[in-house]
Amino acid sequence: MPIKPDAVIWRSLLDACCKTNMGLELSEELARQIMESEGDSCSGVYLLLSRVYAYENRWDEVGLIRKLMTDKGVTKEPGCSTIEINVVVHEFFAGDTSHPQTKEIYQQLDDIEERLKFVGHVPDSSQAPMVDDLDDEIGHSLRFHSERLAIAFGLWNSKQGIPICIFKNLQVCSDCHNVTKLISRVFNADIIVRDHIRFHHF
């Protein structure tokens, strides 16, 4: 490498490892490099590494990372997504039940889940590493990501043909990306999600 790698480069490589499943040893080495240059208090490194462990079905290590984060007081920033409907901005956090239309939103989520099962969607357990290795809990955890709540709200309240536009404070996980693509196809909806890295247009 022509330049000395810094934490940004190490983090980009670790993120690429998570997305392409390039191997556990490389991921652990990259995480070590990041912690050496940045300190071991950043939650992103722990979460990326836990995804690699989850992909490898090494749930004991996922549990150890969760414990290590708790012991060091490292917290994960909660996922938050916003959507504007009729000039009113609505905000959703992961697992949110505070919205006045919570009942309708969760009914819509149930409908989405049933339709996606019908077309063959299976939740990607590596994207929900902070739950135990139980398929129903993993799928349950993923379905309550903030952008899915916002999408369900948008489907419930938007007129056909009006794009559903969502802004999210964190990066969209690969399972939510795949689910949103399927939702767009199954519901014939134009969906745009802006996370903290890029726009996703489905």
From TrEMBL:
<dbReference type="InterPro" id="IPR046849">
    <property type="entry name" value="E2_motif"/>
</dbReference>
<dbReference type="Pfam" id="PF20431">
    <property type="entry name" value="E_motif"/>
</dbReference>
<dbReference type="InterPro" id="IPR032867">
    <property type="entry name" value="DYW_dom"/>
</dbReference>
<dbReference type="InterPro" id="IPR046848">
    <property type="entry name" value="E_motif"/>
</dbReference>
<feature type="domain" description="DYW">
    <location>
        <begin position="120"/>
        <end position="202"/>
    </location>
</feature>
<dbReference type="Pfam" id="PF20430">
    <property type="entry name" value="Eplus_motif"/>
</dbReference>
<dbReference type="InterPro" id="IPR046960">
    <property type="entry name" value="PPR_At4g14850-like_plant"/>
</dbReference>
<protein>
    <submittedName>
        <fullName>Pentatricopeptide repeat-containing protein</fullName>
    </submittedName>
</protein>
<dbReference type="Pfam" id="PF14432">
    <property type="entry name" value="DYW_deaminase"/>
</dbReference>
<comment type="similarity">
    <text>Belongs to the PPR family. PCMP-H subfamily.</text>
</comment>
<dbReference type="InterPro" id="IPR011990">
    <property type="entry name" value="TPR-like_helical_dom_sf"/>
</dbReference>
